[in-house]
Fold this protein.
Amino acid sequence: MSPIQIPTFIINLKSRADRRQHIIHEFAAHNEFNVKIIEAREHQIGSVGLWLTIKYILQETAGSDDEYILICEDDHQFTSFYSKELLFKSISQAKELNADILIGGVNWFDGVAPVNDTLLWSYIFNGTQFIIVFKKFFEAILQADFGDYDAADFKISALTQDKFIIYPFVSIQKDFGYSDATPMNNLPGRADELFLKSATWLQNLKNVAGYYNNITQPDEQDAEIYNTLTIPTYIINLPERTERLAHIKQQFENKPEFDVTIVEACKHEIAAVGLWQSIRKIIRMAIDADDDVIVICADNHEFTDHYSKAYLLKNIIEAHASGVSYLSGGSSITENEVMIAANRFWVSRCLATPFIVLYKIFFQQILDEPVNDNVLADHLLAEMTSSKMVLYPFISVQKDFGYSDIAVIHNEQKGIAENMFAASAKKLESIKQAYIRYNV
């Protein structure tokens, strides 16, 4: 049963009288909160001061019998969606899910999975203005190391997988035109913009999930049919990169499901422009060959242990039934992911192009797309269509040759591609497990 009042601790710098007045007014009409103003611990680094204050609340101020508490910053503002009933319902549901924290609203997030009509699981978040902290999580916060470059929200995200967001948001930040904890937010209107963007994206993701849930998938194919299918596969290679050519030929040995054509890369003084010209060259070849679906590979593509012919072909067929233009075999970065099948995520953005599947519906759009010398193929492909998905587990990563013909950063930081693909896979695995855990 929910308590009559929630122990509520509001963090306020003594010098911020304007914020103190605002937050007292914000809670004045809400008797479901037992409010205490906590003087913030001051530190030359604002984020460290905030963390020290949170620890002080947990260690010195919160009651030993409190099942959970609410920690608020003094810029918290209730939204029109807030109600006492919604908050207590959300707390009760979060408790049943073994939550460590429940967040009233975020100004940024990365990786979510819907749980029910009002709760979302989150991989990582930004926004500490209204957080329910459950008692079982106190010690993890108290024992955590916190450095000068850490931030409270990211640190909390790293400490637990059991974190949930209430949506629609019941809390946002009032924009005072400055931030004591996050210097980069010291711009008028910045907080409003960030919360609006987050709320808009969360609604977009719910809409995407609803759209794909209503698409009828094709009947399961007999595995034997995959033995009859081949995929036109175009591999981009610079003639002088003989070590890459030898590598990529080895990758496709004993894989008759791929009808491989080595395509000489277009040369340009800007390597990224040359890559885009090479992709356009391949699209023209595919149109001339009347291909319905093609694979384009970079010569640093490397199959993972997850690859199998049946796995790839099954997902190519199912993605086509969903109206997809672009399917990535593996990505170094993804954003705004929605799991729409056991092995496919819809994404708003995916980067890196070692192995991509392009469908005929997308061919002419690629040829018609205006470009300039700033073109980056993976960015542009992701921006050109909302009908894109990523396979997970990945079937493709980038082999590190110790240099990159396209990305200068890969030449400066050895192993960066491997680390980026690993981090991307870790996030998608966490999201997938959340979907499974909460039976989405």
Observations:
- The domain at 6-212 is CATH 3.90.550 (Spore Coat Polysaccharide Biosynthesis Protein SpsA; Chain A).
- The chain has a mean pLDDT of 92.
